[in-house]
Amino acid sequence: RDALLAAFEDGAPGPLVHPFHGRIENVIAGPYTLTEDFTNLGSGTITVTFLIHNGPGVPQAAGVTVSAVAKSNALACGKAGANLGANFKVAPSYLGSFESATASVADASLAFKKSLAPLDKASEYLSAAEDLAAESAALIMAPSNLALRLTDMFERATTLFDDPINALKHYSGFFGFGDGSTRVVPVTAAQLQAASNKSLFDSAMNVHALGYAYTASAEIDYTTVDEVEAVSADIEAQYQSVLLSAGTDTDTREALADLRQLALTFLDAAKLSARRVVDVRVNPTTARLLAFRYYGDDTQGEAIANLNGGNVADLMGMIKVLTE
Hints:
It is built from twelve helices and five strands. It is α+β, with helices and mostly antiparallel strands. The strands form two sheets. Strands 1-2-3 form a three-stranded antiparallel sheet.
């Protein structure tokens, strides 16, 4: 048991002898689940995901830095801004087009004001959000300036949070911006223009949210593989949504694809270095005693308790623990 788990957690690439596919080189053991029944010694079930590695040693970020992800994000946001600036049109003579455009900007202002940043840091940010709504009439007539203001709002948020996890939560809060709006099938020229503008604006907001979320995700110090996978799944859903948006142009899609690849480099490396959550079956015990049994000391009892709904003193049956 111990030798097998040590091989899974080693992180170094090696050969895998598969019963059907034969010998496969450069394989790394990925996330695994261990189910043990301590009342039935010698019995256990392991489920493991193996990953192919094409280079020597443990996969790392291969020269990719957080600053490179940030630069790629700036490029993607710039493409989205250029798309908004070039194609967002408001004809004052079109009944409802002006009102629809200003409403979109007002919705963005409200979304920015929902920031969970500490008030002592967010005062200027919140003021800028207020100004965005107040100046919406002028901004929609100069869409390039509108695009710059959106980028400025997302960039301002980079200074609001000391922990990148909180920054990621902030940016994720914009995922799906505009999805809850009531939509009608456009028929008139004014309705077609309003619908096009809304699609462009919503896309720009979602691209920015996605790009800055990618940057924050690369800055997080993950503890468990489950944390990495949860972040990956959430961001990937937003990525797919942005790709399908009619307001996202080809240049922006291509820039986002490059950004996604860079960010995934960090997340894949994080999976290999983060600890894994495994399931084990135990007789009644406490978190501290279980930590001592698994890790040789009881200091990680709190971590075990957190994995099991805060239960400290009454653990039994199938429970979750962290690999060493």
